C-alpha cells in the first residue's frame, strides 16, 4: 500500500510540470506535495532552493509561452521504504518546445519522503539532467 501511495505522489510531482495540449501546468501543487521547508537541489550546476524559490521561475517559464508542450515522466525507479521514511531514485525523460525549438532530454531524480499526519510527503528531491 505504501509503495502505491509513493508511486502516486511521484506521478503527481511529475504531472505538476505538464502543459501539453494548451493546459496550464500546476507547479504550485508542489507546495501540497512537499513538506514546508522541503529542500530542492540541482547537482549541476550545484544549486539549492526552497520550495518557493524552485516553483516561481518554473511557473513563469511554463505559463509565459517560452516552454510549451512540456512533459516529464519517470522511466525507471527503485524505492526503499522503512519505518515511515522512504527514498526513491529514478531516471526520467522530458520533452517540449523551448522558445520555438523542440527538445528532448532526461536525467536522474532522487526523492526523500516521510509519512506525515497528512500522509506521505516529499521532504527533499535532487536532480541532474543528462548531457
TrEMBL record:
<protein>
    <recommendedName>
        <fullName>DUF4440 domain-containing protein</fullName>
    </recommendedName>
</protein>
<dbReference type="InterPro" id="IPR032710">
    <property type="entry name" value="NTF2-like_dom_sf"/>
</dbReference>
